[in-house]
Amino acid sequence: MSASGTRVSIALIVDDDPMMRLLIRQTLERVGFVCEEAANGNQALERFASAQPDIVLLDVMMPELDGYETCARLRAMPGGATVPVVMLTGLDDDESIDRAYQVGATDFISKPITWGVLGYRVRYLLRASHALRDVAKHQASLETAQRIAHLGSWEWNLRRNEVYWSPETFRILGLAPDAVTPSVDRFLGQVHAEDRAAAEQAVSDLVRTGGFSGRVVRMVRPDGSVRYVQLQGLGAFDARGTVNQ
Amino acid sequence: MSQSSRSTEPSAAAFDRAALDAIRALDEGGAAGLLQQVVQLYLESAPRLIAELRRAGADGDATAVRNAAHSLKSSSANVGAVRLAEMCKAIEHAARAGVLRGDLPSVEDIEREFEALRPALEREAGRAA
Within its chain, how far is the Cα of A236 from the centroid? Predict the structure, then answer.
């Protein structure tokens, strides 16, 4: 059994108590994990580097390097920024939980541990982390594809009047990403004066009929250079048949 | 200390067999001897931690008291020694605030509780899978 279907998932169990490590290992092996163990924080950092685990279960209260410090250091290691780290805490006060999140814990599980639940919880966390990783990967390949094609995309939520521009859209407009808040007016403001009426017509067609395509307009960038841009839009309709996006 | 199992049998409130059943369930009914291993680890570590509690208490070392009480609390809870876990929790919380005396269970109370549980745990450890 494996989490991704292609390889076995490795869990790193960090606890100074051998009984705890034994019980967690048994629990996770039952749901298909291969387990690595560390008895203290320094050993955990070594094992993390050598075993490259998919998830880390980290006891908070350990002598010398405690769980918080271990987590903070692990986050700074190669591969350590995104690995899910589950803190095991017997401390039930809010301060410890706050601190766990501050040092970068993904989640925490309170001791005493309900063994039946632990396996499901760890599996779920791993799935969630894989999903996040996949989204980030797809986002990155989409951005690369848009950059190669000089294709910028945008989304306009009419109800909230919120506009999203992809990074390539910013580049086409000659704007630094995050330098301005995307808006329809901002976009129209950069359309060449002679083409503005056509662009405004396209926007009103979109809101009224749900689509337009193929209109080419000139966009004027802040440095004065001009780009020819082909505009396309496709509306999404709400339940009452009104374009809402 | 009496050797009669009747007089050393812990009260129902002190011992939660569901915790042991949960461990047994992790092991398809005991095939790998997990419960025996866990109880054995507990029977080895608890006296050591109680001795550490005594030493740290005598030295007035709040950090060491806290750590020993924390470890004993955690492992006691795993084997279903709920009252012992509660006693350790009280000591741990007080020690975290730097308090070692007052309305707290004594090391003798802890030791008595552990000795009362020991026969039942030894039976679990010795029980054939």
Answer: 25
Per-residue pLDDT reduced to its tens digit, B64-116? 999 999 999 999 999 999 999 999 999 999 998 888 888 889 999 999 999 99
Residues of B with a Cβ under 8 Å from any A Cβ are 19, 22-23, 25-27, 32, 34, 37-38, 41-42, 45, 67, 70-71, 73-75, 77-78, 85
> What is the C-alpha separation between A122 and A182, in angstroms, rounded?
39
Which residue shows structure tokens 């989490």? A3
pLDDT band at A92 (very low <50, low <70, confident <90, very high): low
DSSP A146-213: HHHHT---EEEETTTTEEEE-HHHHHHTT--TTTS---HHHHHHTB-GGGHHHHHHHHHHHHHHSEEE
Question: CB atoms < 10 A from the CB of A45, how many?
Answer: 18
What is the C-alpha to C-alpha distance for residues A97 and A33, in angstroms, rounded to an integer?
A: 26
- Burial profile B89-98: b = 16 or more Cβ within 10 angstroms, e = fewer: bebbbbbbee
CA-wise closest residue to A116 among A210, A235, A23 = A23
- Find the residue in A nearest to B96 (Cα): A91
- Calpha distance B71→B84 (Å, rounded): 12
Which residue among B32, B67, B78 sits closest to A112, beta carbon to beta carbon? Answer: B78
CB A57 within 8 A of CB A86: yes
DSSP secondary structure string for all residues of B65-82: HHHHHHHHHHHHHHTT-H
Q: Estimate to the nearest angstrom the gap between the alpha carbon of B58 and the chain centroid.
A: 21
Tens-place pLDDT, residues A130-141: 888 888 888 888
Calpha distance A187→A86 (Å, rounded): 45
Residue B8 has pLDDT above 70, yes or no: no
Could you tell me the two tokens for A61? 């209260």
